[in-house]
Amino acid sequence: METNVNQYSNRDITITYEPRVCTNAGRCAKELSDVFRNSVIPWIDVDGAPLQKIVNQVKKCPSGALKCIINEKLA
Ligand code: SF4
Q1: Residue 2 C-alpha to ligand 1 middle, in angstroms?
Q2: 28: buried, middle or exposed (CB in 10 Å: 19+, 13-18, 0-12)?
Q3: Is the residue at 1 inside a domain?
Q4: What pLDDT, on the 0 to 100 scale, is given for residue 75?
Q5: Close Cβ partners of 36 (under 8 Å, ≥ 6 residues apart)
Q6: What letter does residue 46 receive in the DSSP assignment?
Q7: Which of 22, 25, 32, 67 minimizes the number of CB atoms within 10 Å of its CB?
Q8: Which residues pair with 16 in a beta bridge?
Q9: CATH no. for residue 41?
Q10: Residue ranges around ligand 1 (CB below 6 Å)
Q11: Where is the Divergent 4Fe-4S mono-cluster domain positioned along the sequence (predicted)?
């Protein structure tokens, strides 16, 4: 079955989103709406917040639909 993972990148980070896995609780949009936007396409703006804030929010995704890869290793 096709997983249909969406990918959003800038120089520092790549965020992947798997809609099939998302439980739609909306936690990401509620807690970091500058990045995870409800009514704008593309819905993820990787430049909407500082890198560490995005990483922290991705880690809170309860379903695992959001994942991120840091392009440069952070301390
Ligand atoms: S936090 Fe994760 S599960 Fe919740 S809406 Fe965002 S992507 Fe979906």
Answers
A1: 20
A2: buried
A3: no
A4: 45
A5: 28, 29, 43, 44, 57
A6: T
A7: 25
A8: 7, 67
A9: 3.30.70.20
A10: 22-28, 61-63, 65-66
A11: 8-69
Residue 59, domain member (yes or no): yes
For residue 26, which atom of ligand 1 is closest to its CA? 5
Residue 48 is assigned to a structural domain of this protein = yes
Question: Are the beta carbons of 28 and 50 closer than 8 angstroms?
Answer: no
4, 38, 22: which is closest to 58 by C-alpha?
22
Q: How confident is the model over 3-41, as pLDDT tens digits? A: 689 999 999 999 999 999 999 899 999 999 999 998 888
How many A from CA of 18 to the centre of ligand 1?
A: 9
Q: Which atom of ligand 1 is nearest to the CA of 60?
A: 1
